[in-house]
Amino acid sequence: VYAQEGTLAHELSELYLRKDVLESISEDEFLAKFDEIIDNELFTEDMPGNIEPYVNYCTAQLAAAKEHNPLACMEIEQKLDLTEYVPESFGTADCVIIDDDVMEVIDLKYGKGVPVYAAWNRQLMLYGLGALRKFDTMYDITKVRLTIVQPRIDNISSFEISVEELIT
Question: Using CA atoms, how far apart are residues 149 and 147, in angstroms rounded to an integer?
Answer without folding.
Answer: 7
